[in-house]
# Entry
Amino acid sequence: MPVPEQDLRDRFRHHPPKTQARIDAHEGVRERAAELAVWLDANLPESREKSLALTALQETSMWANAAVAIHGDK
# Structure
């Protein structure tokens, strides 16, 4: 079943934060992801797996911020 066109267009538009709660949520995601990235970098041996873990964390942060941007406050 095709995705409704408006749903597709909504996925690719800019979703600026409209409330302080959203701004705080974005900052919270970034801060916690950065804290974990620093810990992983300091505690994991240099390896392909470490690189993939950091890449996956970056992707997780991106999707978490997309959830806040698209779906708003809890």
In short: The two ends are 29 Å apart (CA to CA).
